[in-house]
Amino acid sequence: MALKSFTVPSNAVTKHKPALIKKSGHTRVKSPQIPLDMPGWYSTGNVMAVTGWSHSTLYNRIKEGKFPPPNKSGALNFWDTATVRDALGL
Question: C-alpha angle 86/88/90, rounded to 5°?
Fold first, then answer.
């Protein structure tokens, strides 16, 4: 039995809207540009990359007092590299 070939109309792709992707609202892991032994600031994503923790784990540890809370600048959260290094015992 031979397979039938068919063509897709040229307007088929454009007449449907792409599916919306729901974002989780959590920060994605981002490798830091500076090492922990240099002065600087780490974002939430940088801390997640260094520790290997998820967003939820990081903030649960902050709530439990096992990790220092971030400094805040408006809506941005950040940690001094020395603070992260000390908290991890490095």
Answer: 70
